[in-house]
Amino acid sequence: MSRLVSHLRFGKLLVLAFCGVALLGCILAFADEGMWTFDNPPRQNLKERYGFTPTPEWLDHIRLSSVRFNDGGSGSFVSPHGLVLTNHHVARGQLQKVSSAQQNYVKDGFYAKTQAEEMKCPDLELNVLVSMENVTDQVLGAVKPGMNNQEALKARKAVTARIESASLQATGLRSDVIPLYRGGEYWLYRYKKYTDMRLVFAPEQQAAFFGGDPDNFTFPRHDIDMALFRVYENGQPVESANYLKWNARGPAEGNLVFVSGHPGSTNRTYTATQLEYWRDHYYPLRIKLAKDRVEALRSYSARGPEQARQAEGAIWGLMNALKAWTGEYEGLLDEALMAKKQKEESEFRALVAGKPNWEKEYGGAWDAIAQATSKRREMLKATQFRVLRGSRMAGIALMIVQYVAEIKKPDGVRLDNFHDSQLESLRFQLFSPAPVYPKMEEWMLTTGLKGSEAELGPNDPFIQAVLKGRAPAEVAKEAIGGTKLADPAFRKSLVEGGEAAVAASTDTLIVLARQFDPVDRQTIKWMEDNVESVETPAEEKIGRARFAVYGKSEYPDATFTLRLSYGAAKGFPMNGTNAPYKTTLYGLYDRALSFDLKSPYDLPARFMERKNAVDLATPLNFVSTCDIIGGNSGSPVIDRDGQLVGLIFDGNIESLVGRFVYDDTTNRAVAVHAAVMIEVLRKLYDAGALADELVQK
Amino acid sequence: MSRLVSHLRFGKLLVLAFCGVALLGCILAFADEGMWTFDNPPRQNLKERYGFTPTPEWLDHIRLSSVRFNDGGSGSFVSPHGLVLTNHHVARGQLQKVSSAQQNYVKDGFYAKTQAEEMKCPDLELNVLVSMENVTDQVLGAVKPGMNNQEALKARKAVTARIESASLQATGLRSDVIPLYRGGEYWLYRYKKYTDMRLVFAPEQQAAFFGGDPDNFTFPRHDIDMALFRVYENGQPVESANYLKWNARGPAEGNLVFVSGHPGSTNRTYTATQLEYWRDHYYPLRIKLAKDRVEALRSYSARGPEQARQAEGAIWGLMNALKAWTGEYEGLLDEALMAKKQKEESEFRALVAGKPNWEKEYGGAWDAIAQATSKRREMLKATQFRVLRGSRMAGIALMIVQYVAEIKKPDGVRLDNFHDSQLESLRFQLFSPAPVYPKMEEWMLTTGLKGSEAELGPNDPFIQAVLKGRAPAEVAKEAIGGTKLADPAFRKSLVEGGEAAVAASTDTLIVLARQFDPVDRQTIKWMEDNVESVETPAEEKIGRARFAVYGKSEYPDATFTLRLSYGAAKGFPMNGTNAPYKTTLYGLYDRALSFDLKSPYDLPARFMERKNAVDLATPLNFVSTCDIIGGNSGSPVIDRDGQLVGLIFDGNIESLVGRFVYDDTTNRAVAVHAAVMIEVLRKLYDAGALADELVQK
Question: Using a CB-CB distance cutoff of 8 angstroms, which residues of chain A are in contact with residue B216?
Fold first, then answer.
């Protein structure tokens, strides 16, 4: 099954990287709750609450207009000529990769006035979901009576790889087997893949991320967090009728809107034991770790402006993740929330226990999960600290060492990430020409190794394997200083040379990765034998128990696959009063001047110089009750006519607890309004041609 | 001692009327905490935190420029020609009283273009504090060894009346004996009194109270909550050098500012038993009662637009009080706050217990207060429901019945409110020509009596005395329908006729008041004997114990007497981000349009018509850490040069718990910025001459 989620970098509403195993499930849906699969939209809720019935054509059009940014976000086609709209903060990875000490596109933005100026992205892959097929029977059927847990896990992995590989060969499409409803169902999702993406427009970071870390994950908000790419195939822009028409009027308060995007992960059907583990062990460790990394990066930044530029993206991602995790963690610390969760679980288990055949089939699942969670906790430090953290090149080195070994094996027994169906995307990342910053990598690898040594102690096999009694700084300096892996051609030569070339390589980082590889495999094996093989069948049982008890009127937990959320444009109670459902450009200038234009409330020069040119009453950002989470960044907000009225870029602070529970009184999705994008393109960025392409009928 | 506080009506930062007994005290001051008396400003804090030392001249000038609005607010002289600045919501009582079915000054505002147009207020009294004298020894000295509690209380009241009366005769000034530090000290405050007040300017209510009840007690905020009166004496404007010069630049973030005003009451040194009583009994009852009254008033409003106009002020006051009380009540429901209070009390009591002579002198105070509080609880329903609620004329009737009896007694034994020193102010209220609305009075008296009957039962002496077995509606209809008390001349004739005239009167409301009078006296007597006589000496002991333990480095709880607060203009953490220290006119238009101009976010016509005339960058409202509470409405915000930079009109939602505890991380005082008042007077209200008078050097 796909492990895409675990590759992802942190992000605002980007997928947060610590999803751990794919833990999926289904939830009773109330109010405007739910991230629904396109095969099972919430027809009844939509009809009853909003008098709307989506046609198959409506659903297909939305689905085929939606794109996944594989580095952790979402987007949509917004012109017949391949324009794709997403957030500046989804684009920022690529913006940074095409930047240099001389030209900072993250900070200054970018606009290609002509097609010739559109700028190719080094390693951006987009996916469009073109078909969905239920393969539950095949996957579950592979597990035969009498198999023990380990054998069953192997059988599942083998059949999954076989399905994916066969689909790839038959269709040429990227093919992922996705567990939904905690494994209550398995689906084969086929994607059209795009890898020739070109940058067309991004505003200054200060326009996109006005208010910075303080305003992040809050509303009222004042961000023009947009970016436009154009998708090419065979050197030409993609022409297609599957794009969203632009409705600059946007929604009135109370109007029905939809979000079509790729929520990364939710944990709404976690058992009480799992929630407690996250609360008591996982969050505290991850938060501390992230804070340490921010500190290390800031120390590197302090060396000079170019170092600051290099580190800025990573700091941004960590600060963003920290704010999200803190909100989620505080949710778990709320005793009322935990009591609610425990009550729901008790009721569910009582219903299962009420029927002897249910109890026999599913009753043991909770204890099995508790057992697996206890094992997971045992290995928590190992999984977090037996890593070469902070160096992209070290990650590439390990990938090369494992790649050459894995591809020689039958597909079904390979490590995850190395299955046939994943190889093309993997090689796209592996040979990316994006720049590396050796001094930053050395510094971060050093601090990462120091952290691991302090946490694991000198006798841990990882420490012994990679440090061999030497100091972290010495090891990192040697490994980064002596490697040629910054050069994609060198990586390619190693991969093409296969196991022999990698075994013979004296490249310092390859040597380090070779030392690390057996320890990594040992950790993976231990987790498979003690956690995954117990947890996966138990999760499946809970998923099937929910079907048995509640029927299929629920939506599955998020899996970074395409989902449809719905809701109304609507304010919410906030801090003694009401937050409105939208803001205007008046509000942007108010907030900037309210802080005397001090960072992070300064405005790009053009905003001050041309403030009399814009219509200040233009709606800027708006909120809706649509149910979203990290990964939804860049998702289109769509009205009932299927037109684009906004661009998701964030949730409010009250939505962070949405990882565990959705509450429509305060949970809001925050979007850039369709009107302001056109207004600023025309009046501030002299990009009238681009605006015309967006609003054409 | 003065019982002014208990006469006061509800108000935004007006004094809230349920202060109960005057419970005073002193508190250890940290950070920018404290409402300091002018005899004991926080010199050390000011020097250490802000490098500022107030001179005696600076203090005198601020004090003599500050005024008390006796109906519950504060203000300041702002021109050499008697202009006094306060809030629209402080002025709204007078605005309503000069309004009619044909002309609604509350809603539409008012501007006197010439002196001749300035409009006399029916019953507004202003006080300026001209001298302060410590009379602790005289008051405490009146209590002789061997007196029981009741005798001691009588002696205290007698000496207080004597001091006040003597001072009045000697100086002609209003003279109030004020307990400070819970009776640790008693002070004689002498006031210059003004009763010829004329309305000069008020904006539309929607400009003053933009955002209505939802935005009330919150920040960021967008209200031009100002009004200007001119003070007359002998038919001419008062000319004086004691006024605040205008500084339209206002404070920069972090600048030191002061608030000079009249905080009504705080309960920061309440004992744990008292806090529990408020939490468990007092708040729940008062909140329910206020909600019932709002419902009754809304039902009256629904009869038509003129009825709505009549009831609107009372509804506003109750909604305002409800929001404040709810915030305060939630503070007490917060277990962390209660734990903090209990810990402080334990530490204080342990220090007292540590010295045998302290323990002997003060140790019994807490138990005494607990005993008095338990008695207070016994009488809670009686004190709340043995009243003719909802009818101003019924209040006047009772006042007349008691007045003619009390003034025949020696001053020292009269009911509170009827001492010589209070009579002039009392008669000013009694003979007020302000309009009464008989139909509203009848409806509200009916619902009030119904509530009393339901709560007290048919056998309660109050119910028996006023209803005599009849229905509330019948009693109210007869009493209000048959009275001539709406006519001030009739009231005067009764008062002048004395006991005989009142006893012989067949006026239906006088008859009802005569029936009620003995019950009222009985309640007052019971409270004196069982509560006040125990509580007052116990409070004094706690006050003196604090002096013994902590020295006089503290400030007394608020008493609706002049206080100086200080702090910095400063934002605060809010809902996941930061609130700025100020807003601008951009923000007003943003918030209005964010709600699509729907009430309460609609704007007066001139704001839309002239929006291109104003400088949108003009600062609108700002916050500071100054420690304030209800009664501070209309207080000037003053810079270190003694110039006016703002006008207090509210606290943020986080400040409501300030009744019990001050926390400078989030507690903020909200003010109208000096700049915006000038900007709108000139650009929106064509009141350039008035603006000139304010900013003249």
Answer: 577
